[in-house]
Amino acid sequence: MNIVRIPQSSIAPLSHGHPWAYRDFHLDEPVGSFVQLADAQRKPVAWGLADEGPIAVRVLGRGAGPANPLTELADRLRRADAFRFRTAPPQTDCWRCVHAAGDGLPGLVVDRYGDLAVIRLYSKAWESHLEWLTRQVASWGWASTVARRLGVGRVDGGEGLETLWGEPAPDHVIVNEHGMRLLVRPHVGQKTGLFLDQRTHRALVGGWSAGRRVANLFAYNGGFSVAAALGGAAHVTTVDLAADAIEDAKENFRLNGLDPDEHAFEVADVFAWRARQPVDLLIVDPPSLTHGKSSDGAAESAYRKLHARLGPMVVRDGLLATASCTARLDLQKWKRAVAAGLQNTGDWSWHWVSGEPLDHPASLVHVEAHYLKFALLRRR
Questions:
Q1: pTM value?
Q2: What integer best gives the mean pLDDT of the chain?
Q3: Do residue 359 and residue 260 come from a single domain?
Q4: Among 58, 207, 234, 360, which is most exposed with the fewest C-beta within 10 angstroms?
Q5: What is the dihedral of CA 348, 350, 351, 352, to 10 degrees?
């Protein structure tokens, strides 16, 4: 690895294991090449892959880099996949196999949908290693297809799914999640096809739904709705702005032996939607409401206004299951916005607060990786 000297201000976070080296030093190395970061005395601080944009290097380790970095990375990939198998819940065949820096591989994601493995690159640094990555994923032994999901503008600027190895990637896959069957469209679905990070929370909602009238807002393909119906909900209303998503939600009901005609499905803008009657359990899982520092205040305001509108729709002793994937708002800011919105809608209590699931780990020093917030509140 070529040695790159970094300023004193960068040493502390990198020596503690932060996975990003920001571009506050001169770097001429080609994107995707391995580099050794060192202090002014050429003492090794960290090593990683040269990137482009504000993050100059995706840091892969502290101190001196290994003699053969690809051997080290192959071992990390294998161990990340093996750990998922040891910790996967029963009757489940879909999860995140590799979660970027949480598995020591910043900028790289690998998801599993049955026997389909989907790679997604969130950093240009991995682009030149894609063929090698494909071989590693194929060698794990469970995939019949390895594909790449495009759509990260700063990396690939494309869209859709391209098959990298094995059988042509299918248009859709049926997966199992805690025994619940779900339709996945890996070519066009959100993220790599499904919001895998809400798996644990869908199971929780299923356990809270028995006998309740449930409304699921920003529902996408209705994962929370199916979990509620299977959990014994008296009636479920599924709301999303995308008509295609609502059709997939109905299909997910059918896949699980549920009659969609016994429930309600609405194509509507949640920010203007109103319940026809108060509900016992309201599920709110909006998309990210901020993508830059300048819009953080607007995001807090949006969460506050959203909960101010929705709070009165929940009956007394009813439940509000609310979530946020807005990474720039930390847990305390988000809770503050939710509380401010609900303040004038009755008396509420926090009953449950959680974040990312087991297969979405975060490095100890990578606070930016904590993006998911989920809470259950009761209207007293």
A1: 0.95
A2: 96
A3: yes
A4: 207
A5: 140
